[in-house]
User: What shape does this take?
Amino acid sequence: MTHRQVFSPLRLTARALSVGRGETVLGRDIALGVASGGGLLLRGANGAGKSTLLLTLAGLLAPLEGDVLIEGLDEDFGPARHYCGHRNAVRPRLTVGETLDFWAAINGASGLSTAEALEKVGIARLGGVDAGYLSAGQQRRLALARLLVSARPVWLLDEPTAALDAEGHRLLAALLRDHLASGGLAVIATHDDIVVDGFETFTLGVAA
Amino acid sequence: MIELGQHAQFIIWAYVGVFAGLLALVSWTLLDARRTQRRLEALGDPRRDGKS
Amino acid sequence: MSGFLAVLRRELRLALRGGGEVLTLLLFFVIVGAIVPFAVGPDKALLARIAPGIVWIAAFLSMLLGLDRLFRPDGEDGTLSLYRLADLPLVAVVAAKVIAHWLTAALPLIVASPFLALLLAMDGETLLRTIVSLLLGTPALAAFGGIGAAVTVATRRGGLIAPILIAPLCVPVLIFGVGAISPLGGPDQASAAMLFLAALSLMALALSPFAAALAIDWGED
Amino acid sequence: MSIETSPKQSWWNRLAHPGQFVIWTRPFILPLAILTAVLLALGVWFAFFNSPADYQMGDTVRIMYVHVPTAWLSQFVYATMAVSALGTLVWRHPMADVSMKAAAPLGAAFTAMALFTGALWGRPTWGTFWEWDGRMTSTLVMLFIYLGIVALWRAFDDQLRAARVVAIFTLVGAVNIPIIKFSVDWWSTLHQPSSVFRADGPTMPGSILTPLFIMFFAFTFLFATLQLLAMHTEVKRRRVMTLERRAARGEAA
Assistant: This one.
């Protein structure tokens, strides 16, 4: 097993959180908490605000009311959250290896090396290929590999299994087990069922 | 009208232009206000005239 | 620092690789300069007098043209959100992008300006002054361009608005840029203009990354 | 948005709430409008019937009575926008966004009028409608900045997000305006050494100052009235947008 950096125990909590974009409130008085080693599956119909809640938890969207806290994080750890949205943030003209090296340089190369990360997501042989030639599933794996090159405890994934094949699902489950085992936590908005123990479910109704 | 000298036309045009502009500005502001107010009433604003 | 260089390398790689527009911007610069004689006639004396102005207008327009690729592609494929979560502060990312924009949009123009000077019957001494004034002035255009691109990245059709937004802000750069070249006001005026130009570029480069980073943060929020 | 009925709502945050702002400031509109109308009428009467021709400019000084107020307003409106921009960025004051958005078109209109009257004043004085004189040119650049800001407002769908981004650009503009003025003045003295006749010097005799002051206050009050009206409309427009979006999502308001 490659050496994994173990994160200090921490907890992601949201208190009396209401999320939304501009004037429209999508979710009201949301309270949730995820501890180290745990995970949360966000369920809800389309438009129920899953993605907006995830963006708010990631700090990319300001909460309308209430707040999002990460307790137990030592200050000099730097940004602790990884966000992986619908868009893969992959530029066709850059090769797979260059993309991962870039993210390692930007987010700190505190995780696996590029080669190891590509190995983990099963696209090791595509290192030198331009990302434009990758299929949607392979680009999704590249986006997941980005989470591995810099180790951060909190993963916030929006439909990670989109475009992934059966093999991809197994790989993702393995990644999540690894991540939770090393003390990380994850919040995933998805319709598929992620067969990883330690995951609770949180259903988002239409704005209560 | 008093004698405006040989440049009378420019003085007149200046005032006509400015007051036409002001008129347009005022009427546009009033029109916009009334139009928005009517749309607000059409939507059945639950909070009477903007007081929440 | 390594993150800063990584963004710089990535931007340069993207600009120089196949789809990059370094060549198209360069062509646009030369074409704008070359079509002026068709419009105002081939009279060399006239051309020589207005040559510095033409070179600056061509540089100004082609840098405006290259603005849209500064933040919009990152905004569309989600990279911009990830920059906001990166270890590297957004201000550093924006600064690296502005410098990369200058390297890929302004430097090639300066290298190509002798060719344009030839077309516009510009004598050697003026050409030298033009190159120096372009070197001093284009960083300010890149910096203001950064603000224009950042402010319009969150809009749907921002691409058209950025140039008209920052054109008024670039008026001083144009004035001092051309003022530094043509000896209209005599040598001391020209050197004063050169100093103003340098001051303007320094101020713009220092301030614009902060304003642009704020605009991106709150535009995406 | 329910009001938190805290016992003591200080004057400042009571004004902060859009609905409250509309109620508080509505009684001011009518008196302001009447005052403006009176001042305008008085100003025009003074301008035409009760002031002598200037010994140098002759009768064209009467154009000054409209040119100076509009030119002053083009600066003053931008100052209000810059202060509102600070209000938006620093204190997140919701009414600051509204006042910034309401002021932009007004500023553009007054700047256009300043250019129009300046051109008409220039024709008898300089012989041409447009002269690349320092002040006129910087007013022209101001007009482009205003129009750019109006275009930027319209480019955004979500007006709340737009407010802070436009606020940043307004402040960047505010920082650059003195630089633009300086460079344009430097440029105009470079190309035309003859200094232009400075009309609004302090040496104006009393009889010319009175219409100028009256018109000055008339135009400033006019801007205040239109600004208040436009802010009320903007508050209502945001209400309409929220209701329409909520109706579109098929929810009870």
Q: What stands out?
A: Residues 13 and 19 of chain B are 10 Å apart (CA to CA).
